[in-house]
């Protein structure tokens, strides 16, 4: 059985040998794990190992939500970094490491955690979300711990430059003028410069590229440098998809959030036009078009609530039909499909 190393306990036995990033043997098959071995695996950036025999159910099915404290801490660190409260780039590294640990320990990410009222708060919450989504995507692409950390640091800092943009423009409810849009377009360069000035040498050059390049697009239509396909580093490409997904699925002062399934389909349909197709596929396999709790309309005209995900078929989750409470696993009930997500108005109509 495969287990993330955060779930390992002394006494568990390795079913397969564990190799380091250069192919060297770290621990052989049949070794009984001790605290020291587990620590050594962590230090060698091993993410997952295979354990012999059944592992008690309660030890693997940890489905807690990502702890509020870790998320709030991450936002505070970012905020202090901007305000120069003795927070260095090295502290940001620790923050990303804490987020990565949470994800590796199997905690679920919940969206829209913070009521986004101020420009700063939106930027920080969005940065933490984009960091986590990028980490999930990187894991899907098989990145090792070192690469994940570099990606996460770039992603959490990607919009730092927005804190230097006038909030009146950033939060303008109406359409931006050309001049205002040009000001917004300066945030990647401003963010990159800010990090360079504040101890940028401590972070990987690829992390810094994410800040500069997260608005570049595959077809050359992005900014600030209009880079194209192969000129865009994969870290920046991952952050770009996570950024668009999170921004579109979040309410903003100038528009309501798009439903997750619509953004999902939009990204899926966009092919190689704006984003790298392989990155889109990896990304979409980590996000859920119908998060648990979504109310949906089924093709049999019934209304249902999503109760759990089917990882292999994200468009076919398990649902509870309302009001009967009947559970339908859409992975098996192939004659029924989800036709739409109920709008808030439709949900209001359902309440007696
Ligand atoms: Fe941005
Ligand atoms: Fe962003």
From TrEMBL:
Its EC number is 3.1.4.52. Keywords: Hydrolase. It comes from the Bacteria. GO terms for molecular function: cyclic-guanylate-specific phosphodiesterase activity. InterPro entries: HD/PDEase_dom, HD_GYP_dom. It is an enzyme of class 3 (hydrolase). The keyword 4Fe-4S does not apply. Residues 101-299 form the HD-GYP domain. The keyword Heme does not apply. It holds the Pfam family HD_5. This is Cyclic di-GMP phosphodiesterase response regulator RpfG. It comes from Fervidicola ferrireducens.
